[in-house]
Hints:
single chain; 337 residues; alpha+beta; Beta-Lactamase; Helix Hairpins; 4 domains; 5-stranded antiparallel β-sheet; 9 helices; elongated
Amino acid sequence: MIDESLLNSLSNKEKEIFKKGLEDLINQTYVIEDEYKKLNESYMSLQDFIAQIIEVQPNALWVLDVNGDVFLQNSEAKKIPELLKKIDTKQSTGEIECNGSFYLVKVALHNDKTVISVTDITEEKRKERLASMGQVAAHLSHEIRNPIGSVALLASTLFKRADIKNKPLVLEIKKAIWRVERIIKATLLFTKDLQLNIQHFYLDELNEECDLAIEQYTFSKDIDFSFRLPHKEIKGDFELLSLVLQNFIFNAIDAIEEDDKDGGRVDIEYFNDEIYITDSGKKIENKNILFEPFKTTKTKGHGLGLALSLQIIKAHSGKITLLDHKKGFKISLGNRK
């Protein structure tokens, strides 16, 4: 507060100088306040810009403060908060497995901040594993097919010469050989890129393929089969789509065999451009691993049937859906008319 007696002691000229200085001071205050607002707006804009840069990153990103608390993170990081607890910030790079997925972790220090970048490499790991499997499968198939071919030829010869009472035993041998050959084929198909042989055919041609397939499969219970695919022309790989239906049929047979009931039923029907495969067998125990390769809850099988089927259907621009109202699956083939 200005002393009034001091003002009164000033001359008119001094008062004018004092007034002018006071006005300049006030104006300067406004200028400083305006610059502060602009600086604050610029700072907020910079923060938003940095947040946008972090957000558009395809990988998970965390920025930690000096205490190790999260200073900044993007939406990808928010999806996997449990992963942050497993990261060793003292290591600049490394790989971590979390909830069945694999991640590549990179850590960088900047002043008092720690920047952590995490990239999902699960698919790359899967491709590496499949490539290795493909090499092994190709080698094994070559080594196995020769003796299996000889056994198949001998079994056919034996079937012609065997007594009637022994023919069922030889027939079971032939079925077992067919099953081994089918496993080899499925493994080779799964571990390499599918090459579709697209052609026009009628869906009901697959009915006969399904009938022939169950003649080659061994089961002990009384099972009713109903294959009712219509005389409808589509485009697709006939052999691979036939293999898909066979996989579902064999899975259904195995489920009925493992069930407590004395018999069962397997149905293949067609509604609204979609194929439905249902059965009355044992319920699915773990839906989360249905399409995981080499994972199965069945006592029979190698865990490739559904994984390969999904791969084939995706190659046809379609999808496989687990039914809610009934035990079974729905296959959509996409635009293959």
